[in-house]
Specification:
ConA-like_dom_sf, alpha+beta, 17% helix, Jelly Rolls, 286 residues, 5-stranded antiparallel sheet, signal, transmembrane, repeat, 13 strands, 2 domains
Length: 286
């Protein structure tokens, strides 16, 4: 059986176990954009500084973040989605960062192989959530705009977008801000055949300057709502990853905890049906 004492679950070989797990899929591991793009303090214009929290309960180390002075990185989008994996239709896009006060820029931009921007995470005053599917929907005049907020005020912010069906919801600093229409088509696709750009847009003069601790894409539109619990919690709680040496593409402790809970539920179902079977069998014998 599973040993979840440290949130590490060992799989069993029970056929019923495997069947039930197919109905309860685990949350997908996050795509760590900064790691895939190989952002490093060894780059010119990049240094390692304190992040959102200078101290956390039970930890001596501070959060770590990259301080960036106008650099931009790019890589083929297939590096974020290797093999035959695709950009998820429904997803969360989440970051913890502090932008230079008064700035306005795109932190992340995803382009198709024709150079059309299909996804853009804007930071600044009244930011737009840029999204266009393979058919160019929605058109620029219909992009969702989150008015009356300012993400570039010189303070740390935890920003999480949830894209689900034809809506996009913004969570800012652990609070749901608003849900807006995302008038994309059915079976919307974001291409992985193009390039992903960090810190700006192609041909843009406005480039990110500030600090960034994390930038994730998660194939789970519900992840955005729990970003402040499962990914970057408040300073009273430990990080779910080792800020000194985070491991790439591994499930967070929060994900492992959910896996353990799910395993326990599976066993409860298993023993429930086992007891039910024995009870029915005994009654049949009578």
């Amino acid at each position: 059986y599973s040993d979840c004492s440290k949130h590490y679950c060992l799989m069993t070989s029970l056929p019923l176990h495997m069947v039930l797990f197919s109905f309860f899929p685990f949350p997908a591991d996050p795509i760590d954009v900064l790691r895939v793009l190989e952002l490093s303090e060894n780059m010119e214009g990049v240094s390692l500084e304190a992040g959102l929290c200078t101290s956390r309960r039970g930890m001596e180390e501070t959060d770590l973040a990259y301080k960036i002075k106008k650099i931009q990185l790019s890589a083929p989008t297939k590096q974020l989605f290797p093999g035959n994996s695709k950009f998820p239709e429904n997803f969360s896009l989440m970051t913890t960062m502090r932008a230079k006060k008064g700035s306005q820029f795109f932190l992340l931009s995803v382009y198709d192989d024709q150079g059309m921007q299909q996804l853009g995470l804007e930071v600044g005053r009244s930011p737009v959530f840029l999204y266009e599917d393979q058919h160019g929907q929605p058109t620029p005049e219909m992009y969702p705009i989150f008015k009356k907020i300012n993400m570039a005020d010189g303070k740390w912010h935890r920003i999480a977008y949830s894209v689900l069906k034809k809506t996009v919801t913004l969570y800012l600093d652990c609070q749901r801000v608003e849900t807006l229409d995302l008038l994309r088509g059915d079976d919307a696709v974001v291409s992985t055949d193009g390039v992903t750009v960090f810190g700006t847009r192609l041909l843009d003069e406005d480039i990110f300057e500030g600090d960034i601790q994390q930038l994730l894409i998660v194939e789970d539109p519900q992840a955005a709502a729990s970003y402040c619990e499962n990914y970057i919690p408040d300073c009273d709680f430990a990080l779910p990853y080792n800020s000194q040496a985070p491991e790439p593409q591994k499930a967070s402790n929060a994900t492992k905890r959910r896996q353990c809970i799910m395993e326990k539920l599976v066993y409860l179902f298993y023993f429930f049906f086992l007891q039910l079977f024995h009870s029915l069998y005994d009654k049949a014998k009578l």
